[in-house]
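Table S5 (text form). Sequence records supplied for joint modeling of the two-component complex.
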Amino acid sequence: MFNYNFRWNQALNSLPQMLEGALVTMEIAILSMVIGISIAVALTVFRLSGNRMLKAVATTWVEIARNTPALFQIYMVHFGLGSFGIHLSPYMSLLVGIAFNNAGYLSENFRGALKAIPDTQTRAARSLGMSAGQAFTSVVMPQMFRISFLPMTNQMVWAILMTSLGAVVAMNTDLYGVTSDLNARSFRTFELFAIAAVIFYLITKAITLSARLLAARLFRY
Amino acid sequence: MFDTALTANDLMFLAKGAGMTLIVTAISVVFGTILGIIFGVIRYQVGPWWAAPLTFVLDIFRSIPLLIQLVLANAFVTMVLGIRISGFAVACGVLSLYTAAYCAEIVRGGIEAVPQTLRRAARSLGMTWGQDMRNIVLPLATRVALPSWIGLALGVMKDSALVYIVQVVELLKSTQILITRLQEPLFLLLICGLFYFLISFPVARFGGYLEKRWSND
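The corresponding structure-token record, covering 438 residues in total, follows.
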């Protein structure tokens, strides 16, 4: 027991590469959130609309995203879509997979938030002469984002953590991919992944902290 | 697209993988819940200052990708400590702690949802701390916590797909193995996804139903 030689120096030498990977991780997470939020808003509108087709599409999307593993979804995007002749790069597969997952979860959050907004507001907005679209975008939607701000922050953290799943589609430029590549070369598994863990921890903390500061500024009244 | 070389043996292989997924999930949820209740009660009982170290440790489990937790735990136990241990044990251990970290939060939320006045009334009626916990807090906190706990259990089932990294052949990994051999990714993935969906969807619906039923009274 304990005859293991820690070689932190060797692992720390590759810190610059890992930090570069961390940037890619953040890039994917941010992009997937932007895409995810846009799609989630669309899905929420679909679910509110009277159109049966749109409702079915939105419900199916949300239920699949929420009831299957994220790893499965990324795998499906990469290998499943190949059967339809769509071949995506690992980067794109990971991004699309996470965005798909984000959209499903966020849409459910938005739906919960909408329940907290009284119907009378929409009616008041409409009687002031706003169109249905205007009422939604300028009265309902800002409040929806405000109520679901905390779940959105959580989803952002989830998106960061999910980027590690790129391993399954041979993604090797994000933080996890870079770390496991380095590991394959040097076998300092514990040291390398411990450093990666610390970086992940710092990123998630930075996100929750900045979200809290942002919330304090945005929602002062 | 759907004519397949899938044999009954392959289906058995998939079923075994599915069984592994369920076993890992069951073990992790049971131990994770027990630990989570203990941690949650401690966190509530000793106050935020004294619980800070525990909060910090539990928070780590929620801020680091599960995949890295598994790799790290595996490397630590087998390489640093030099103990020979199966990937299955590592997977169950890590997933249990991971579950406990989330469960502690749910338990604490549940306890906090019980009005203080109610508990003081119980204590002033002569109930001990244990009686108060059992007869007052438990039933009321369960109402608040159970729907979230169901969500957590399902989350753990989905996250158990990651234990392939420590050489546990669960459902997704066995699907992957079959894909490599049969080269029919879409069909096999649909079977795999359907299994997760068929377990997760009804239970999630039930959780939603409980939440709705228990919240409006």
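Note: Chain A is about 80% helix and 0% strand.
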